[in-house]
Design brief:
The chain is built from two helices and no strands. With 68 residues, the chain is an all-alpha fold. It is elongated and about 70 Å long.
């Protein structure tokens, strides 16, 4: 029961602060979104480069097994 009351109080406090600090919230969001896009883009680039590299290595390994 206490957990429910604390949860409701925290939600209400969060909504009040979000409304009060709306302009600062938007500025923080504007600062964070480009950083996330850069990190996600770098992660996707690293993933797809490693996929291309592994696809290029597979035929070379098949040739080695055929020679034996």
């Amino acid at each position: 029961m206490i957990g429910i009351i604390i949860g409701v109080i925290l939600i209400i406090l969060g909504l009040i602060l979000l409304i009060t600090w709306w302009s600062m919230f938007i500025k923080a969001l504007m600062a964070v979104i480009p950083i996330f896009l850069i990190l996600i883009g770098a992660g996707a680039l690293a993933y797809f480069l490693s996929e291309m590299k592994s696809k290029r290595e597979v035929p070379q390994e098949e040739k080695r097994t055929e020679e034996k």
